[in-house]
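Me: I'm a chemist; would you kindly supply a protein sequence with its structure tokens?

Assistant:
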Amino acid sequence: MTSKELISTYDEKNDTFVCKLSDKKGYVANYDISNGVFLSTDINNLPVSFFIGDASNVLNVKKSILEDPNVAISLKCSKEEIDFELFIADERIYSSKSGNYFNIPDIDCVMRAN
């Protein structure tokens, strides 16, 4: 399992939650991996960022929870499946599994905000 640095931000007015890997810039493709959770990838189809619009409803949490800077994402991809988990303040607040219809390569990674 690899570990990467994550930058996260929450816009309460627009209820938008965004996480981006600190060493990545731009993206090539954007995939809806779960109802309203979008994964953006680079030219090699590797993760760059995550976007969640209407975040408090999609994640079913209070807006105040989304303001906590202690954010981590676990992403595991195989040829068949994408396993996504979002943690805030060390509690899992969201998880989903979906088919890997996007040819994202095998990944087992934890991304954390510092």
About this structure: The first strand starts at residue 2 and ends at 11. The helical segments are 55-59, 63-66. The chain has a mean pLDDT of 94.
